[in-house]
Amino acid sequence: MSELKVGIIGLGIQGETQIKAFRSIPSAKVLAICDSNEERLKLIREKYNIQKVYANYLDLVNDSEIDVVSVCTPDFMHHEFVMAALRAGKHTIVEKPMATSSKEAEEMVNESKKKGVYLMVNFSNRWSPAFRIAKDYVEKGEIGEILHAYSRLNDTIYVPTSMIKWSSKTNTLWFLGSHIIDLLLWYFEDEVEEVYGKRVSKLLVKKGIETADAYQAILQFKNGSIATIENSWVLPQGEPFIVDFKLDLIGEKGAIRIDRSHHGMLKKITYDKYEMPDILRNIDEDTITFVKDGLKALLDSVQSGKTPPVTGDDGLKVTKIIESILESNKRNIPVKV
Questions:
Q1: Could you give all domains of the chain from N- to C-terminal order, each with its CATH number?
Q2: At the N or C end, where does the chain have fewer CB atoms within 10 A?
Q3: E strands of 285-331, at which residues?
Q4: Torsions phi, psi for 256 (to 5 deg)
Q5: How many CB atoms lie within 10 A of CB 264?
Q6: Which of 201-210, 249-258, 285-294 has the lowest mean pLDDT?
Q7: Maximum Cα–Cα distance for the chain, whole Å?
Q8: What strands, in cross-sheet order, belong to the sheet with 4-9?
């Protein structure tokens, strides 16, 4: 196929970002869009000159011209739309997290295999320059086996109070933690065996938003290594950036430190050398670029017949880990994944 036709369900921030990204991929054409908000649907259609618009997602997934469906709805709504796309025999990409229950995630994986179509979870940070270069370092053995890691991905309070209108229906582990758990699984190349999670829930509840302020968790890998994660939705609004994203990987022979909040700064430290690759880029342009690279990976898989670099099984692993962290917090004990 010289050109794959894409249908996008959900026209929020990520849906519009994907339209921009797909438009920069020669092998893709955004043929159709769908959203329940008629005003938003009309605005996006006119802004990007989209050929087809649908108010009902079933009409979009059953459009015979569409090859790939991208689901960009809020996380707790993914299951219904993804299952409809898979049942219609469409290759499907879904925003992270894949689902907010392992039962729903397993149904998606099983349906994709039953229909013989690709299901990819858009863990787009795998294509962000700093994280991608770090993966190269790890694969080359430059820091040796990873012993422990720390990552935090936090937002200012603007995100749950103003930027998204559905924060009470999710939490910061699903919204943010899914990103860093996928990255850790990618770097460690090992299974998480046990988790211990805690949360604080004060400020947002006072504001009438029924979700936790922050979670912290320890992840124990089967090989004995550990990782600590932190996800907060209550950073002060005066922060210089909406997002605070950092990751440290400590290995037998060195360390990698990433500060995504400051133009993707990356440092590699070994016993005899310190390196800081020059990857400074405009943050907005960078976001479109690495989102584009992730979406293109699925399109390349469809055209080549090769398995996508991120699969539904990867998404299922992340969902199971987050479920276990939530259970651990509820029971106040470590929990096996």
A1: 4-124+288-310 (3.40.50.720), 126-282+319-336 (3.30.360.10)
A2: N
A3: none
A4: -125, 130
A5: 22
A6: 285-294
A7: 60
A8: 52-54, 28-34, 4-9, 68-71, 91-95, 119-122
